[in-house]
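anyone seen this seq b4? input:
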Amino acid sequence: MLNTGICPLLNIKYPIIQGGMAWVATGELAAAVSEAGGLGIVAAGNAPPEIVRQEIRNVRKKTDRPFGVNVYYLSPFVEEIIQIVLEEKVPVVTTGAGNPGKHIPALKENDTKVIPVVSSPVLAKRLERAGADAFIAEGMECGGHVGDITTMVLVPQVVDAVKVPVIAAGGIYDGRGLVAALALGAQGVQIGTRFICAAECTAHENYKQAIIKAKDRDTVLTGYEGHFVRVIKNKLTKEFERLIKEQASPEKLEKLGTGRLKAAVVDGDVEMGSVMSGQIAAAINKIQPAAEIINEIMHDAETIIRKVSKGTCQGTVL
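predicted toks r here
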């Protein structure tokens, strides 16, 4: 069985972490991923604190395995969310869109592992000094809010910059991606888009079908410098393009985007909703149980590694 340093650190069976996707990463999905041997994540997003507490407890009703909460540092409820994480003794916290440094001491004292998402080696070095336990190096191929460095380039730079484990994210969906991430020096992978198409994911069926139908060039970046979001092309992205050509203000662009993710995920509006998705959507063609997704990834990764060790790997190995 493929077991890396991230597995004992997080007390998980497989080196696979589910992405902390707002509105998508609910207790149902997190529990299914954790029960299958990965690390399920509940996304706090901008949700009110008691909703997050409820999702945490939903996970515990379905599994006794480790899980995590993704804390979104642009949320107005950050302090309350951190307090709930401490009170609920959540085993792992992943963080995004901000610096969790001031909260790391309290979380570590609570025996909570802290894993920030980073898009540069400079930020990783700074947060390692603050006490981060590991990092998710997320390339611009991912869905949602993105940086400007690709996964292939970013991961080895972060690996070389820090001494703690690194988890690769962005453009990864199968065993080949896991093996590639290991070759780059990562000790595991974070997968988001494929888990949207997990049977246990509560996202609207329209959202899932938009991913399944996506072609190789169907994702685009919307927003403005420093605030780009990767989504599937639709009427909303065309409106963003129009406003950008007109040199609309960041405030106007932000107003256009407000509430659009919920519209897609919850209401199923895939025309004027924000259908956040990674570039890898084109490779995803079916809805499967989370356990089946994880088992497939691990089987394929282990097959590749065996063939490489025997010297029989010649490109197409699955």
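DSSP finds 14 helices and eleven strands in the chain. The longest helix spans residues 290-310. kinda curious what u guys think
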